[in-house]
Each structure stands twice: as C-alpha cells, then as structure tokens.
Amino acid sequence: MEKLVEILLVEDNPGDARLCQEALKESKILNTLHIVDDGQKALDFVFKRAQYEDMPTPDLILLDLNLPRVNGKEVLAQIKGDGILKRIPIVILTSSKAEEDIIKTYELHANSFITKPLDFNQFIDTIKTVNQFWLGIVKLPPKE
C-alpha cells in the first residue's frame, strides 16, 4: 500500500495556492495538501500549536518568502533550527529572483529555491516536477 504523503504549502496568494492544489491533484503520488496563508500559521502548523495541534508533521514544505506576519526566511530559520523538524525538506517557491534571497535561503538550509514561472502551464509543470522529485525519487527521512 502506498504511503500518504503530507505536504504543507505556505502561500498567501490564493491563485498560486489553487494552481499548486491542481498540480498536486494530477500527481501520481498520493498526497494530502495542507495550505496556510501566513508565516505564523506555518510555524503553528509545524510546531503543532493552537488549532494545528492534531495536524500531521509534513513530509515536504513548499514555502513562499513574501508572507504576512512572519516572512518565509524566518519560518525557514525556525524550522531548520529545530532538532527534529530540520529534516523536513523545504522548497522555496517564490516570485523572487533576487540573488540575496537565493543566497540567504540556502544559508538557512533550504533544500531548493524555485522562482515561480509566470506562465500557467509552466507553473503546473514545475509543481508536478517538484512533487515527483521530492516525493517520488528522493528517499525522505523517517518521521519521529
């Protein structure tokens, strides 16, 4: 039996969140997509605080950088600073092309940095490729 994969999408743009949802729905990998729209909710989700205390630990996090309340770099830093949660692969999925964002996120131990394509079909293909790579090819660490 195929294992259900838990994905956390941290995205404040409802259109981009919907595109990710559609791309993952078409994926051949059985997954559950959880969506939060700001950095504080992302931290609450992964640290299982407040209304997220019963949520599963994600197998993969797709993280935007430009988020309300707590920005993506801070979310990345806090997750990668945790002894257990740092194992979760975090893919930066952002509209930024800024070299300083690329450098900083890798310094904070992001697993990859992807600039969101503006073209609809390219965006869908990118999400499918990310999903296939991280959840179909890569061997992820076991959850605690």
How does the SSE layout of this entry go?
Layout: E1 5-10, H1 14-25, E2 31-36, H2 39-46, E3 60-63, H3 72-80, E4 90-94, H4 99-107, E5 112-115, H5 120-137
Parallel strand pairs: 1-2, 1-3, 3-4, 4-5
Helix pairs in contact: 1-5, 2-3
Structure description:
With 144 residues, the chain is of the alpha/beta class. The protein has a single domain, classed as Response regulator (Rossmann fold). It contains 5 helices and 5 strands. A 5-stranded parallel beta sheet has the order 2-1-3-4-5, with helices on both faces. Strand 1, helix 1 and strand 2 form a beta-alpha-beta unit. Helix 1 crosses helix 5 and helix 2 packs parallel to helix 3. The longest helix has 18 residues. The chain is globular, with a radius of gyration of 14 Å. The model has no long low-confidence stretch (mean pLDDT 89).
Short descriptors:
Rossmann fold; 144 residues; five-stranded parallel beta sheet; alpha/beta; globular
Measured between the Cα atoms of the first and last residue, the distance is: 21 Å
Question: What's the CATH topology name?
Answer: Rossmann fold
The topology string of helices and strands comes to: EHEHEHEHEH
CATH class bucket: Alpha Beta
Average pLDDT, rounded to a whole number, is 89
Describe the biggest sheet? 5 strands, parallel
